[in-house]
Every structure is written in C-alpha cells, then in structure tokens.
Design brief:
Layout: E1 2-6, H1 10-21, E2 25-29, H2 33-40, H3 51-58, E3 63-66, E4 77-80, H4 95-114, E5 125-129, H5 137-147, E6 157-161, H6 171-176, E7 181-185, H7 188-204, E8 211-214, H8 216-246, H9 251-258, H10 280-293, H11 299-322, E9 329-333, H12 349-358, E10 362-366, H13 371-375, E11 382-383, H14 387-391, E12 396-399, E13 420-423, E14 435-438
Parallel strand pairs: 1-2, 1-4, 2-3, 4-5, 5-6, 7-8, 9-10, 9-12, 10-11, 12-13, 13-14
Antiparallel strand pairs: 6-7
Helix pairs in contact: 1-3, 4-5, 8-10, 8-11, 10-11, 11-12
Catalytic activity: UDP-alpha-D-glucose + 2 NAD(+) + H2O = UDP-alpha-D-glucuronate + 2 NADH + 3 H(+)
EC number: 1.1.1.22
Active site: 279 (nucleophile)
Length: 441
C-alpha cells in the first residue's frame, strides 16, 4: 500500500519507519523542513532504539517526507499523528489535529476539482486517527474539519481510529510485536483497509495478533483506558512502596511476590520516583477533564496523579535527611523521563530540579542523550559530559532515570564531598563508603 502520515514526531516517525519496513510505501508530512530533510536523507529526527537503522535503510526510498499535502489523494489511506498537548485545565488542545484534518480535506477537495478523470465509483479515502484523542473527537471534531473543504463523509472519505500502544524506548519493538490491534470504524471498507495495512505484520508475527474490531469512539477510549490503568498501577505500587519504606520493608521484594499473582502480573510494579513522558500524565489528565465536563469526577484517577506528584518530594526529603542542600552541589543523574529516549516531557527530573533550586542548591545534571532537550528549559544549571563529572565534589546525588550505565558507577562516588545517594529507580547497588537510600526500599 501507499500510505501518508501527517506528523513526524515520536509516533509518526516510528510508525512510518515500521510500515516501510513491512513493505509499504510511506510518505510523511510535516511543517518542519529540517525533519523532512532528515528523513529524506535517512536520518532519524528523534532518538529511539532501532529507529536509526530503519530510517537509514528506507529513508529516501520506501520512506519519504514532504511538507506538501498534495500527495494525499495518491495514497491509499492517511494517518493523523499530530500533537495533542495539554491545556492548563488538563484537557487536550486539538488545534493541530483540526488543522491537519482540514488540510487533508482540502487536498482531497483539490483533487476532486482538478482531476476530470476521477472515477465517481472510486473508493473514498480513509483517514485514520493515530493520535490519542478523547472519545467522540474523530466524529464530532475532526470529521467537520475534514468536510469544511467541501468533501463528504462516505462519498469522499471514511474515518477510523487505530490507536498505538508503543512505549518510548521500545517503540519499534512494540510496533512489530503488538499485544493487540484496535480497529475503530463505522464502515466495512475502512475495516478492510486496516486489515490490508496490517496484513504484513500479522504474517510476520510468530503468534496470532488479536484484533479488536469496534466503533470509533470505543477505540479512542480503549487507548485512554489502557494508559490510565497502567498509570494507576504505577501509582498504586508507589503508594505501597511508600508504606513499605515506613516499615523498613523492601518494596521490590513485596512486588516480586505480588507479581506472581496472574490477576495482577509483574509488569509496572517497579516502584520509584514516578511516571512521566507524553502519555501517562497527559492522558490521565485529559480523561479526568473529559469526565468532569460530563459531570463525573473520577477519584481513582485523581489519586493516581496525586501519588505521582509526591514521589519527587519524597526523594528530596530523603536527601535532606543526610546532607545540607543549600549552597551545595547536588548531582541529578538522569533527565529523560525513562531510559532509551531523549524525551523530557513530564520528566520527574523537572520537579526535582525545581525543588533543589528553590532550596538554593547548585544543581549539576547528567543524561546520556537528553541534555540538549533539557537545556532549553533549564539553561542556567550545569550539565556534564559524564556521570563521573556530575558526581565530582557533589554533596549528594539523586537518581531520577534508570539508565543502565548508572549501575556501573562505583569509584566515582568516592569523588563526592559527601557520598549521599538517593536512588529513585533502584539502579545503584548499596556498598560501603556511601550513604544510600532507596526511595521505597
């Protein structure tokens, strides 16, 4: 198939490269000339394990990029993978999705008006929502935006929802080895096209991939339900971990036992400084705001965010027990919201740095890939080239991101003035010569 994807961010670029690897021809559309140029020359515009190789192999060939929407009528279907940032009240801002949808509609309308050879019986163009949007958004917000150019639903275009379930840091692996595929449609032809799109993936898979066929709004809700459930699981194990800490019990030992219960499962039971990223905080806030707009205030989801917000505070309370923060050098190890990515959206390092600065600390930070992204928001703290440089002469260190390289730190702690290490990710081993505290163990 030839598919077009509007948006070349974390989702759009990864999805595009993976579809190209499955044998499809993919054209991404983005307003950023530098991103377009990077993809065309085979350079991945974001850091994601496995993505560099796919873009290098297919960029400029089966994977193309452009700033123009006029390619859309030539493709079999279009995916919208545009940002949906949070507003101050937690609701999502749909301006980019609406603008993209309207541009797709204009491209289809222009094709209809200029192509006199158009077959009146040709199939309508399928437009698929890939971004995470509140239930009913596609039907109530995006369809009118598409139709504004004069194209008609069913006659000229169909819509569907095909949410992604990819984790940053393992997005390529997650795409190529999915737990499920969700096809939200209102038309048989739309469903058929989605099956055709994913047929190479289903043929490649060792086991049969479950396919959930549902309507558009339910597909939109499934994505929110997925992320809200996982975010709540993280906050629950963090809450239990905080209780464990008060009793001197190792929360990880407890979690290992809990995870053996197949009703619970072992994933997402690593307690620590909390979740960040573009999905869990934004999606949980968004579904809370949407529910409140309908008159329901979800207490469990509110509690999920409350617990997540207190974890950085508890990290610094432990640090303050063992060393003086004011006017002293404090090392922050890890800036990305999780290992394997350079994404700093909603990273737990941000509230940690904010509180350290409020207490007058001299903050020095290190991350293997996310430094430049963080520098945009915190230009006046010190960044180092290595973790060892960050620890040198520090009066304390906090571990915020669980990068594997931090587990190899040893003699580097001997260069600290006061070797106090507060670990928010259980990545450092206790050893003689350092004052070590785990956040929940």
């Amino acid at each position: 198939m030839h598919i077009s994807i509007v948006g070349s961010g974390y989702v759009g670029t990864t999805v595009a490269a993976c579809f190209a690897d499955l044998g499809h021809t993919v054209t991404t559309i983005d307003i950023d000339d530098s991103i377009v140029a990077a993809i065309e020359t085979g350079d991945a515009p974001i850091h994601e394990p496995g993505l560099d190789e796919l873009v290098a192999e297919h960029g400029g060939d089966r994977l193309r990029a452009t700033t123009a929407y006029d390619i859309i009528p030539e493709t079999d279907l279009t995916m919208l993978a545009l940002p949906t940032p949070s507003r101050d009240d937690g609701s999502i801002d749909l301006q980019y999705m609406k603008a993209g949808a309207e541009s797709v509609g204009e491209a289809l309308a222009n094709q209809n008006s200029t192509d006199t050879d158009t077959d009146p019986d040709s199939d309508p163009h399928l437009i698929v929502t890939k971004s995470t949007v509140i239930p009913t958004t596609t039907d109530e917000q995006l369809v009118p935006a598409i139709a504004r150019a004069g194209v008609a639903r069913t006659q000229d275009f169909l819509v569907g929802s095909n949410p992604e379930f990819q984790r940053e840091g393992s997005a390529v692996t997650d795409f190529l080895n999915p737990d499920k595929l969700v096809f939200g449609t209102a038309d048989e032809r739309a469903t058929e096209l989605l099956y055709e799109l994913y047929e190479p993936l289903r043929e490649r898979a060792d086991d049969e991939i479950p396919v959930v066929e549902t309507d558009v709004a339910a597909a939109e809700m499934i994505k929110y339900g997925n992320n809200a459930f996982l975010a709540s699981k993280v906050s629950l194990i963090n809450d239990l971990g905080n209780v464990c800490k008060e009793f001197g019990v190792d929360a990880y030992e407890v979690a290992d036992a809990i995870g053996l219960d197949d009703r619970i499962g072992a994933q997402f039971l690593r307690s620590g400084v909390g979740f960040g990223g573009s999905c869990f905080p934004k999606d949980t806030n968004a579904i809370i705001a949407a529910a409140q707009e309908r008159g329901y205030n979800p207490p469990m989801l509110n509690a999920t965010l409350s617990v997540n917000n207190i974890q950085p505070e508890r990290l610094l309370e432990l640090l303050d027990k063992h060393t003086d923060i004011t006017d002293n050098r404090i090392a922050v190890l890890g800036l990305a919201f999780k290992p394997g990515t350079d994404d700093i959206r909603h990273t737990r390092a941000a509230p940690v740095i904010d509180r350290l600065r409020e207490h007058g600390a001299d903050v020095v930070a290190y991350d293997p890939v996310a430094t430049e992204n963080m520098r945009e928001y915190y230009p006046d703290i010190t960044y180092t080239e290595t973790a060892a440089d960050a620890l040198a002469d520090a009066h304390g260190a906090v571990v915020v991101t669980g990068w594997d390289e931090f587990a190899a730190l040893d003699a580097e702690f001997d260069t600290m003035v006061d070797p106090v290490v507060i670990d928010g990710r259980r990545i450092i081993d206790r050893r003689d010569g350092i004052t070590y505290e785990g956040l929940t163990w």
